[in-house]
Write a structure and sequence with these properties.
The complex is a heterodimer. By secondary structure, chain A is of the alpha/beta class. Chain A has eleven helices and 16 strands. Classes of the chains: A alpha/beta, B mainly alpha. At the A-B interface, loops of A face α1 and α3 of B.
Chain lengths: 403, 86
């Protein structure tokens, strides 16, 4: 028995919209960090971000525009692309056997911000009726479900940056319970002044004005990250169902998943991240030596980098498995990053290449083999993706070649 | 704008602003008796339109009566019989 298969992908990233545009940008090391353009950030301590092409969602029907936050529009673009990629012929599955699970960190912050502004400036009669759902965490799931007629088990996962993996794991649970196809992943971002203030309060943003020095995980100069927007939506299918319909593309198998929760910071107890990783390995029936590459969370906060590097070394041995952080090109996309890392890992498997981490000079203090400089060509059968969410969430997901 | 008359042209303009246009729907066609559901507008779109009508024309529509209006003609009739606030 094999795990569910990824049969379609849609990517919306700051350095590329669409799977192939994104992937070629990643392999070329094209960065996408720059000054915030969406609003005036000059008065804040942090002023860099990674924004998606403003025209990315320009083709969406106007009916959707008054009722959607910016990140929901990006999620709709990714879902549309993923379903087109999967090429499921109409009528293949009962609509009730197809669902949606997305991850979200904050919902439609920009939309909510504007409506609150109208409330206090002009009065309640000026607030959009769409505020009832457009700000909400589950809104991407709902809009994707409505637009594509996916009426089966659906939901939203809110575990900060770990959500992109947790949503895919939840998709797998729904497939095990009998669904045939789940659209799963995360597209996220709250690059608006209200979202910005919330992120500043989190205390993990870089205050650098140099795009090449602002997000440096596993580097001695690490001092926070740059926020971005975007992510990936995957079409995840029951393996027998996908093979039965002759799915034109199979990117790989969701082979294993594990999660753990960290002890309270003041407890003095060590992070439990390694438990998530070993649980994922056990779930996949694999040994550490079976993993060909690790896509790390890469917080770029020294204490968190230390935890992640040492725990990777605990499971795999020091400097044994290649580790990479392609999101150094475009920052952390809230709940979108981990889903995008899964898409990137599947492309790495498909093409036999490990994308490089950019801008980083790895610190010798960290016992990991970080891939910097050029992408590394080699056969990749299985990849581990690690994602950690603010508040203690640790998740690990393994994707494996289905060939 | 209080005091102006809400006609079909104004209603089209308001619907475009507050709810956009469904793919494949021509709002400029003869839509007076086309159902709102065929035009791609749900109850939230109509609530948005009612809020805009209140702001622009000073006419407050009862929510239940609004949702009983199934077509542009029925909505325009409702507005013309409703009490103006001014």
């Amino acid at each position: 028995m094999t795990g569910p298969l990824v049969t379609g992908m849609g990517v919306v990233a700051p350095n590329g919209v669409g799977v192939e545009a994104y992937w070629s940008a990643v392999l070329a090391g094209v960065p996408a960090i720059g000054p915030v353009r969406r609003f005036d950030a000059s008065g804040y301590p942090s002023r860099l971000a990674a924004e998606v092409d403003p025209d990315a969602a320009a083709h969406l029907p106007s009916r959707l525009l008054p009722q959607t936050d910016h990140m929901t529009r990006l999620a709709l673009v990714a879902a549309e692309a993923a379903l087109a990629d999967a090429a499921v012929a109409p009528g293949t599955y009962d609509p009730f056997d197809q669902g949606v699970v997305t991850a979200s960190s904050a919902g439609g912050f920009d939309f909510g911000h504007r409506e609150l502004e109208k409330l206090w400036r002009s009065g309640n009669e000026f607030v959009s009726a769409y505020q009832s759902f457009a700000w909400f965490y589950a809104v991407n799931t709902g809009q994707i479900s409505i637009r594509h007629g996916l009426k089966g088990p659906s939901g939203v996962i809110v575990t900060d940056a770990a959500g992109g993996l947790d949503a895919i794991a939840q998709a797998r649970r729904q497939l095990r319970r009998g669904s045939r196809l789940i659209v799963g992943g995360g597209v996220d971002g709250s690059l608006c002044s209200w979202g910005w203030v919330a992120k500043q309060a989190g205390g993990r943003l870089s205050e650098s004005d140099d795009p090449a020095r602002a997000y440096l995980p596993f580097d001695a100069r690490a001092a926070g990250h740059v926020p971005g927007e975007g992510g990936a939506i995957l079409v995840i299918e029951d393996a027998d169902a996908a093979r039965g319909r002759g799915a034109p593309r199979v990117y790989g198998e969701i082979a294993g998943y594990g999660a753990s929760f960290d002890p309270a910071p003041e407890s003095g107890l060590a992070s439990t991240l390694h438990r998530a990783v070993t649980a994922a390995l056990t779930d996949a029936g694999m040994e550490p030596g079976d993993i060909d590459v690790v896509f790390a969370d890469g917080a770029a906060v020294p204490e968190l980098d230390w935890q992640e590097a040492t725990q990777i070394a605990t499971v795999f041995g020091p400097r044994t498995v290649p580790v990479t952080v392609p999101k150094t090109m475009f920052g952390r996309l809230d709940a979108g990053s981990a889903a995008l890392d899964v898409a990137t890992a599947l492309l790495a498997i498909r093409d036999g290449v490990i994308p490089a981490t950019v801008h980083v000079e790895p610190s010798a203090d960290y016992p990991i083999d970080l891939v910097v400089g050029e992408p590394v060509r080699r056969r990749i059968r299985a990849a581990l993706v690690i994602a950690r969410g603010h508040g203690g969430f640790n998740s690990a997901l393994i994707v494996r070649s289905a060939a | 704008m209080t005091g102006s008359v809400l006609d079909l042209a104004e209603l089209r303009r308001i619907l475009r602003i507050v709810a956009g246009t469904e793919q494949g729907v021509d709002l400029d066609a003869d839509i007076l008796d086309t159902s709102f559901s065929d035009l791609g507008y749900d109850s939230l779109a109509l609530l948005e339109a009612a809020a805009q009508i209140l702001r622009e024309f000073g006419v407050r529509l009862d929510d239940d009566a609004l949702l009983d209006a199934k077509s542009p003609r029925q909505l325009l009739d409702l507005v013309s019989t409703a009490d103006s606030l001014s």
